[in-house]
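Fig. S4 source data, part A: sequence.
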Amino acid sequence: MSGHVDLTLRRTSIDKLVDDPDTDPALRERLESVQDIRAFAIDELDLPDSGSYTDFADLERDVTVWLVTAAPELSLEAYRWCYPFVGCLSYRGYFKRAAARQLAEDLEADGYETALSPAIAYSTLGFMDDPVLNTMLAYDDLELAGLIFHELAHELVFVRGDARFNESFASAVEKLGKARYAQARALQVDPDAAARSAAREADFLALLLATRAALDEIYRSEDPDDRKRERKAAALAALQGEQAGFKARWDGYAGYDHWFAPEPPNNARLALLSTYQLDVAAFEALFAASGGDFAAFYVAVEALADLPEDERRARLDALAPP
């Protein structure tokens, strides 16, 4: 709570900062981009016109919160923490890294694999107006737009206790919104470089999801635990080998090396990936079925959100491409 209070006390109106002649010109330019992105989110993507992203706060650090994720040694079922209002989630956030690290160590002592992930933003889901943070301004305009679209999507649709639905939906809005924003603003993007980046991202995500599927099959098998451990080690070794092959094809591109060092992939990291990515393709298919219209898409998403969890899961599975 003290971390959020500190954040709140640091808030200043973006309009005021933009109009203030003493504001650093570089900061003013970024905040003007925020104003444009927020207006685009409301006018073109039909995202909520709340008070979020109308203030700026400088936290004087590079990370906003640290997320702890955990999973058992032989399962991809993430450990869940339960909260008032939002239900049970597969991660826990801390403003201080030391507190997050302590929780991770406690879980590891109980036999869990853990992941400690830095986050540059978080959403209060519309309960409060979220500010733009200095950590967010490290992104270029397109990535910053995607981040704002993602967080505003949480204010629009949020299913209590279904982190995979919530994060995959917001990730889909982020992806779709970025494409729409880049086209509308005619952002200067090298088409060849963009194609290479998209191909790398698709290759690596497919590799991670395939590894996750292989591990899930191993953990659900009737093999004894020692055999599961052997097969798990082989699957993770194969992941690293495939990544080395990708890097060779990518002319040494190292943008995904953080997945392998200083700590190798584990169940907790793959569980977090699942939360944010497993249903993105299904939501993209629903967007296409909605005629590429964001308002109609949100109506369809809200209809899914109203379903019982097992029926909602079945509908999303049916939407996902083979």
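Fig. S4 source data, part B ends here. The two ends are 44 Å apart (CA to CA).
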